[in-house]
Amino acid sequence: MQISELARATGVSARALRHYEDRGLLIPGRTGAGYRDYSESDVIRVAQIKAMIAAGLNTATIQRYLDCVRVDGHGPSLKMCPDLRAELDSIAERLAAKQADLRRTQQRLNELASAG
Amino acid sequence: MQISELARATGVSARALRHYEDRGLLIPGRTGAGYRDYSESDVIRVAQIKAMIAAGLNTATIQRYLDCVRVDGHGPSLKMCPDLRAELDSIAERLAAKQADLRRTQQRLNELASAG
DNA sequence: TTTGACCTTCACGCTGGCGTGAACCCCTAC
DNA sequence: GTAGGGGTTCACGCCAGCGTGAAGGTCAAA
User: The domain A1-79 is classified under which CATH number: 1.10.1660.10, 1.10.3720.10, 1.10.10.10, 1.20.1250.20?
Assistant: First the structure.
């Protein structure tokens, strides 16, 4: 299938699909005319990518661990890949740090707003 | 005083002070040689800017409302400036939205990490 | 006079997943 | 043949507060 069809099938923009390819997350075939030619398995692959993006992984990390994630009807599940747990932990730490920053900012804002 | 002295006095980098000037938050005088020449009141002004930055206001908003904020020994306090309350409310909304996004991301990450 | 510390103005880098033209090619239907 | 709806590869824009050289002037101390 070509790119707009995969875009419709996955709910991901064609631009994003090309971006994923730039980052090494997708490697579609090519037709004689140079058009990208995606397979059915790419639909699943894009679903995996979506799940990992939504979980806060960046494309470089996804590139390393993409094959560790499966997405079936019930949501994503993990295979055992070395260092993946540690990677997820560090992402969780970064998210927690952002949480803390955000709360501090909210606190200062409240202090400003509640000040007479 | 010149820029490095103000930087030491406020704990803000000289680069940041120049940036504030670019954004119209500070307007120091100039010596004959072209050096920036800050006054004592700029120390307080920078403290106000720091408080507002820490509360999530951007430089454009700070530029509009800088004179509405005073910083004394007990922390910042507000003067009545039209639209400032509404501005602070909208900032609070944006922060809350970021919070929500962050929590959703953490939720997805947990789903990934806890999946077998 | 020569360090050396401090100042000045550009102007790119960072973080990063895309949106959005621009300029051009491919294929089908009329 | 031509219009139209795909496709392709660049490559800048975004959001924003600074960090960080680069190239060069100023000034007090030795």
Answer: 1.10.1660.10
